[in-house]
């Protein structure tokens, strides 16, 4: 059983979204915190890695001029610094949801996602899918080229369920790094708009540009 090292939550009218880092170890040290132009960061040091956790909201209005009620997003930047085995997992889950909500998968190009809605609200939650992660490995873009899957062209580290996304962080070698992101957004229910889906469908470079990461 893994230990929860740190967890962040986002309360919405439909449910509470939690984003948690888990490990086979129980040690984590908080080092410092600060802010970007459109986000905040915290630096952590668990047993074998250095972690930057970046929290932000998506840009509003989107490129169609649409807005949404609110959003909360997390980027985990993990760098291996010690040659010891640490089994890390990031889990984004839904709890305390209303009885009348419905869950549905809402996958799209380069993303694994699900939707929660009732007759008043809708919420989208997503992460990058195995194909885009494998593409990042191919381009040495915050994913180790050593882990490139040349047979399936897919990184098999994500378990997408009806109400959770679990990422099993691959075992890194010292000096290797990985970037994992999770975006959520909600809005009043309107079948004619897809603004919450568009909000969570931003690519990595655009997100970092918006946040102000150099």
Brief digest:
The protein has helices spanning 130-138, 195-199, 204-211, and strands spanning 3-11, 16-23, 29-36, 39-45, 49-56, 70-80, 88-95, 102-105, 111-117, 121-128, 158-160, 164-168, 177-188. The chain has 214 residues and is mainly beta.
* Lateral arrangement of strands in the main beta sheet: 3-4-5-6-13-10-9-8
Helix % is: 10-25%
The structural domain count equals: 1
SSE order, one letter for each helix or strand: EEEEEEEEEEHEEEHH
State the major sheet.
Answer: 8 strands, antiparallel
Give the low-confidence spans: none
Please provide a written account of the structure.
The protein is globular. The longest helix has 9 residues, at 130-138. The strands form two sheets. It has an eight-stranded antiparallel β-sheet with strand order 3-4-5-6-13-10-9-8. It has a five-stranded antiparallel β-sheet with strand order 1-2-7-12-11, with no helix packed on it. Helix content is 10%, strand content 46%. With 214 residues, it is mostly beta strands. The protein has three helices and 13 strands; from the N terminus they run E-E-E-E-E-E-E-E-E-E-H-E-E-E-H-H. The protein has one domain (3-127, 156-211). It starts with a strand and ends with a helix.
């Amino acid at each position: 059983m893994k230990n929860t090292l740190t967890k962040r939550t986002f309360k919405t009218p439909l449910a509470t979204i939690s984003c948690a880092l888990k490990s086979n170890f129980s040690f984590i040290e908080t080092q410092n915190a600060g802010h970007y132009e459109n986000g905040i960061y915290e630096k952590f040091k668990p047993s074998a890695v250095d972690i930057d956790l970046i929290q932000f909201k998506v840009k509003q209005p989107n490129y169609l001029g649409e807005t949404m009620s609110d959003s909360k997003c997390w980027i985990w930047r993990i760098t291996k610094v010690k040659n010891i085995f640490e089994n890390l997992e990031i889990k984004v889950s839904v709890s305390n949801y209303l009885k009348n909500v419905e869950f549905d998968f809402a996958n799209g190009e380069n993303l694994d996602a699900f939707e929660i809605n009732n007759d008043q609200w809708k919420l989208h939650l997503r992460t990058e899918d195995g194909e885009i992660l494998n593409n990042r490995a191919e381009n040495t873009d915050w994913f180790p080229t050593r882990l490139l899957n040349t047979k399936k062209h897919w990184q098999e580290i994500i378990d997408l369920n009806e109400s959770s996304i679990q990422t099993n962080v691959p075992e890194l070698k010292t000096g290797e790094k990985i970037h994992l992101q999770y975006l959520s957004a909600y809005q009043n229910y309107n079948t004619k708009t897809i603004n919450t889906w568009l909000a969570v469908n931003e690519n990595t470079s655009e997100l970092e540009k918006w946040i102000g990461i150099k």
